[in-house]
């Protein structure tokens, strides 16, 4: 029902605001509520269109939840808490990703697909080394990150040709994946993204991924660092030109 | 149906509060249906009544006491005419309609009435008893005319010092109800009375629909569908629509939150033309129906007329259907006005599983139409709605204004060319006799505006003071445009038709033609015949412009009756201007940027990849959200937000949206505003 969608959207907005205020626990609780509401209706309905609509909202909620846990983890000063929240982040993104790949839901997105890999790398930076890392006993389902990134690159490339042409989130994901795979330097990687004149929240979002990656000890760190500098400079131009008006 | 009937006569008593004291007002009334009493509106106008009651002169079996309570709000009222209908809570037994009389008398006549004048009341033991009093006199055939609203001038034979109480009394001439008394004329030492002619009441569509038997009303509270069938048209359309609703109702409920009434209102176009009352009620339904399905097979004239009305009055979902799938040739022949619309064909060439099967097609059209209408304030599925609301086009000083042109709506096909030469000649040589400021005659083809054809046409239809419509050839476009004119202007069109086209022929819509001719009463001319019909047409226009009454044939409706009907039944809540500023701003922003703009990775605004434009857009988006917040926040006092949970919820939801929009801004003022909102939300949420 439209009212349910409205409620879900309101909860998402509220959660985003709590996240931005660094009230992560509150944000996660709100998203859990949105997820429970959406899952309830998704299970109950037989309508394919409605299922698809709800699944899209649900995967978005999981994506937001994954983001909340990631930020929470990255800001935790206690290593165990950091690992715990990053693992929760990977789990949330993975649940979202599992919805993204269900054909009948027709979700054309890369939000959870890419971010679960990012959170995974943040949790376990050596997972992107040349030789696949040993399975981490803390994780039930260790990933071959490089292989998954290659798959993601192909999937997003296809999406950008088709239904997500010019989509800033797809372009940002694509640039990040190419960067992590060391296939592109920052400037060409983000050229298309910049060409879309994205709003500042899109820059902020891309930066919130790049900055912690730049701090890691892994091969693509320096590229992430350069990319962050590039986007920061673009964002600063955007903001200063607005102030000048 | 006889003359005066004492069973219908009532004393009206209303109580109003005046400076804390009760004031009792008395008048006379006359039952015109079993529950509606006709009286003068000033009888009710002393202030908002505490109570209104009527006492029949002759006790009625249905009434438990001698007084019958009436609703405090009149069922109909026309202050200009000084007439009102009040509705009693306990109807009488069924009554025949009164024998209505005309107002144009050739010679003076004797009139009679019975009323409750104060002069005949008696006070016995402190209680006032009201007695009826018979009245009689001369109705002056040529009195009551001149400036202002036409009245009946009644000479009174009786000496009366106090006429109070007779207002609203019925006036009879030769057994026909011709008027109701409204005032005494002091200049004649109260030996003359003025009455409202009932024929003026009968011109008022509100009066006619109020006294008429209810046909389509009451309309459902839920979302409902009005189906208009063509004459001798597709008898299965209603069933198909019903099947479509049945199949899609859950989906529609999920996607739009709306419950569809599963019983559509089905009207054959000939039923809608059965009488003026039916036509007015149908126009009310057109204005009220959230969804309308119209069978445009053959593009029959009355169907097109009603579609034209719909296109002006309602930004709702309107679906047009035809019986057979059009081929390329017939597509190019579609009437100009509906070439842009999506016409659903009902041919049986698709399987029930196919989305193009009529049941599926209609269902998905309703569902997607409702959803788009909900999300897009500029949703349209018919032309006209926006164009007709454009302001009057400005003309250069000294040049001809759009109002000063005579707009001619007529066919353009070859067969009409001779008519055009003849009619345009007759109109042009008589322009100056119509009105000196009218300068030129123009058809749609002649309009010199550089605007789009449709835009210029509909502006012309609305703003031209004089609009002449030639029905000859019964063209679909002309009737669509005729419906538009009737809906949007209080100066009705002057309709013409060539004599040969009035005759019954072998058309598939004979009844519709007959009824249209009777209701809208076009002036009949003969091609290359005498000029009298045109003189009559110009006289009709002059009478309209000068506010004079035009005698109406038995079935005919007044030139502005459709317009008046729409004014009184218009669904004004659809106008964005009626929304509160913060709602309007939110709706506009969501329509342009989506309800969840951050989820979307692309922007619906064209050319927004231009960096400067994108910056401006982003900045303005934030400022508008702030404006919406500032309005709602300052509009109500803190106490109101504290005590009203709905208002509080609205403020909180809006605040969250604003904070989200400003969340990544580096502007210190944005940060300050955001923090203020968050603090307030935190405070309100603890309540």
What is the fold's blueprint, element by element?
The complex is a heterodimer of chains A (245) and B (687).
Chain A (H helix, E strand, L loop, with lengths): L1 H19 L3 H21 L3 H28 L3 H22 L10 H13 L21 H17 L6 H13 L5 H4 L1 H5 L4 H15 L6 H24 L1
Helix pairs in contact in A: 1-2, 1-3, 2-3, 3-4, 3-5, 4-5, 5-6, 6-7, 10-11
Chain B lengths: L8 E10 L2 E11 L4 E4 L9 E8 L11 E3 L5 E3 L4 E5 L21 E7 L6 E3 L2 E3 L3 E8 L11 E5 L13 E4 L2 E9 L7 E6 H6 L1 H7 L13 E5 L7 H20 L8 E4 H4 L3 H13 L2 E5 L5 H13 L3 E6 L5 H5 L10 E3 L12 H18 L29 E5 L7 H18 L5 E3 L10 H11 L2 E5 L5 H13 L5 E5 H4 L7 H11 L2 E3 L6 H14 L15 H9 L11 H13 L17 H25 L2 H6 L1 H18 L5 H18 L2
Parallel strand pairs in B: 16-17, 16-18, 18-19, 19-20, 21-22, 21-23, 23-24, 24-25
Antiparallel strand pairs in B: 1-2, 1-4, 2-3, 3-7, 4-5, 6-7, 8-11, 9-10, 11-12, 12-15, 13-14, 14-15
Helix pairs in contact in B: 2-5, 3-8, 5-15, 6-11, 9-14, 16-17, 17-19, 19-20
Q: What would your notes on this structure say?
A:
The complex is a heterodimer of chains A (245) and B (687). With 245 residues, chain A is an all-alpha fold. Chain A folds into two domains: 1-123, Serine Threonine Protein Phosphatase 5, Tetratricopeptide repeat (Alpha Horseshoe); 145-245. Chain A is 74% helix and 0% strand. In chain A, helix 6 packs antiparallel against helix 7. Chain A starts with a helix and ends with a helix. The relative contact order of chain A is 0.08. With 687 residues, chain B is α/β, with parallel strands linked by helices. Chain B is 36% helix and 19% strand. Chain B is built from 20 helices and 25 strands. In chain B, the strands form five sheets. Chain B has a seven-stranded antiparallel β-sheet with strand order 5-4-1-2-3-7-6, covered by helices on one side. In chain B, strand 19, helix 7 (328-332) and strand 20 form a beta-alpha-beta unit. In chain B, helix 2 (205-211) crosses helix 5 and helix 19 (645-662) packs antiparallel against helix 20. The longest helix of chain B has 25 residues, at 611-635. Chain B is globular, with a radius of gyration of 30 Å. In chain B, 43% of the residues are buried.
């Amino acid at each position: 029902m439209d009212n349910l969608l409205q409620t879900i959207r309101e909860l998402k907005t509220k959660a985003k605001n709590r996240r931005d205020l660094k009230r992560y626990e509150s944000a996660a609780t709100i998203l859990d509520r949105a997820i429970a509401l959406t899952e309830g209706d998704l299970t109950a309905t037989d309508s394919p269109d409605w299922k698809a609509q709800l699944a899209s909202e649900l995967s978005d909620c999981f994506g937001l939840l994954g983001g909340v846990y990631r930020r929470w983890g990255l800001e935790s000063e206690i290593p165990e808490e950091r690992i715990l929240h990053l693992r929760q982040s990977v789990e949330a993104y993975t649940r979202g990703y599992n919805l993204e790949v269900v054909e009948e839901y027709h979700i054309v997105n890369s939000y959870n697909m890419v971010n679960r890999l990012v959170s995974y790398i943040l949790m376990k930076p050596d997972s992107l080394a040349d030789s696949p890392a040993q399975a981490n006993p803390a994780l039930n389902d260790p990933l071959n990150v490089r292989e998954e990134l290659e798959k993601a690159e192909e999937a997003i490339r296809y999406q950008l040709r088709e239904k997500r042409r010019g989509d800033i989130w797809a372009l940002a994901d694509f640039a990040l994946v190419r960067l992590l795979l060391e296939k592109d330097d920052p400037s060409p990687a983000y050229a298309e993204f910049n060409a879309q004149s994205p709003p500042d929240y899109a820059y902020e979002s891309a930066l919130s991924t790049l900055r912690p990656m730049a701090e890691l000890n892994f091969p693509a760190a320096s590229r992430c660092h350069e990319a962050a500098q590039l986007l920061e400079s673009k964002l600063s131009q955007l903001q200063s030109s607005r102030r000048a008006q | 149906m006889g003359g005066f009937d004492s069973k219908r006569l009532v004393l009206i008593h209303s109580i109003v509060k005046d400076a804390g004291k009760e004031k009792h007002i008395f008048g006379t009334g006359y039952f015109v249906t079993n529950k509606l009493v006709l009286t003068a509106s000033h009888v009710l106008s002393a202030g908002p009544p505490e109570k209104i009651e009527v006492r029949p002169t002759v006790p009625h079996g249905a009434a438990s006491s001698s007084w019958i309570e009436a609703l405090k709000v009149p069922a109909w009222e026309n202050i200009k005419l000084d007439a009102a209908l009040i509705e009693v809570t306990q109807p009488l037994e069924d009554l025949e309609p009164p024998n209505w009389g005309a107002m144009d008398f050739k010679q003076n006549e004797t009139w009679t009435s019975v009323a409750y004048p104060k002069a005949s009341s008696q006070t016995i033991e402190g209680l006032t008893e009201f007695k009826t009093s018979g009245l009689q006199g001369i109705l002056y055939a040529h009195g009551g005319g001149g400036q202002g609203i036409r009245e009946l001038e009644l000479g009174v034979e009786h000496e009366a010092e106090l006429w109070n109480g007779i207002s609203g009394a019925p006036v009879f001439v030769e057994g026909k109800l011709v008027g109701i008394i409204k005032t005494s004329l002091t200049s004649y030492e109260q030996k003359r009375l003025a009455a409202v002619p009932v024929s003026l009441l009968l011109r008022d569509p509100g009066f006619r629909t109020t006294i008429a038997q209810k046909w389509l009303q009451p309309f459902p509270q839920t979302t409902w569908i009005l189906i208009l069938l063509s004459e001798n048209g597709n008898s299965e359309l209603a069933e198909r629509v019903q099947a479509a609703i049945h199949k899609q109702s859950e989906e529609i409920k999920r996607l739009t939150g709306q419950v569809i009434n599963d019983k559509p209102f089905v009207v054959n176009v000939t039923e809608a033309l059965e009488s003026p009352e039916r036509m007015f009620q149908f126009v009310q339904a057109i204005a009220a129906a959230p969804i309308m399905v119209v069978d445009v097979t053959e593009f029959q004239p009355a169907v097109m007329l009603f579609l034209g009305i719909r296109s002006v009055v309602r930004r709702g979902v309107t679906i047009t259907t035809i019986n057979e799938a059009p081929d390329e040739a017939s597509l190019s022949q579609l009437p100009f006005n509906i070439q842009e619309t999506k016409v659903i064909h009902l041919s049986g060439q698709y399987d029930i599983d196919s989305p193009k099967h009529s049941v599926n097609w209609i269902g998905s059209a309703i569902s997607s139409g409702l959803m788009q209408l909900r999300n897009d304030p500029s949703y349209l599925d018919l032309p006209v709605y926006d164009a007709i609301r454009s302001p009057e086009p400005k003309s250069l000083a000294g040049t001809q204004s759009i109002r000063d042109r005579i707009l001619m709506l007529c066919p353009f096909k070859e067969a009409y060319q001779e008519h055009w030469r003849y009619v345009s000649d007759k109109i042009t040589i008589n322009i100056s006799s119509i009105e000196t400021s009218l300068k030129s005659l123009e058809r749609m083809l002649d309009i010199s505006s550089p605007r789009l054809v449709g835009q210029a046409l509909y502006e012309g239809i609305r703003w031209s003071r004089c609009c002449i419509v030639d029905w000859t050839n019964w063209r679909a476009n002309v009737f669509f445009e005729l419906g538009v004119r009737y809906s949007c202007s209080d100066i009705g069109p002057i309709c013409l038709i060539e004599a040969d086209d009035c005759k019954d022929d072998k058309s598939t819509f004979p009844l519709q033609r007959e009824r249209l001719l009777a209701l809208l009463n076009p002036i009949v001319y003969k091609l290359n015949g005498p000029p009298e019909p045109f003189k009559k047409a110009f006289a009709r226009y002059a009478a309209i412009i000068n506010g004079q009454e035009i005698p109406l044939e038995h079935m005919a409706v007044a030139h502005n009756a459709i317009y008046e009907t729409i004014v009184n039944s218009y669904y004004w809540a659809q106008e964005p201007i009626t929304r509160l500023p913060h709602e309007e701003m939110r709706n506009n922003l969501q329509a342009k940027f989506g309800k969840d703009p951050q989820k979307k990775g692309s922007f619906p605004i064209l050319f927004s990849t231009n960096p400067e434009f994108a910056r401006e857009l982003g900045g303005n988006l934030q400022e508008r959200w702030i404006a919406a917040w500032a309005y709602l926040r300052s509009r109500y006092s803190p106490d109101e937000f504290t005590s009203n949970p709905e208002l509080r919820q609205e403020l909180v939801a809006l605040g969250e949206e604003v904070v989200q929009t400003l969340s990544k801004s580096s502007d210190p003022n944005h940060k300050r505003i955001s923090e203020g909102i968050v603090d307030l939300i935190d405070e309100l949420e603890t309540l």
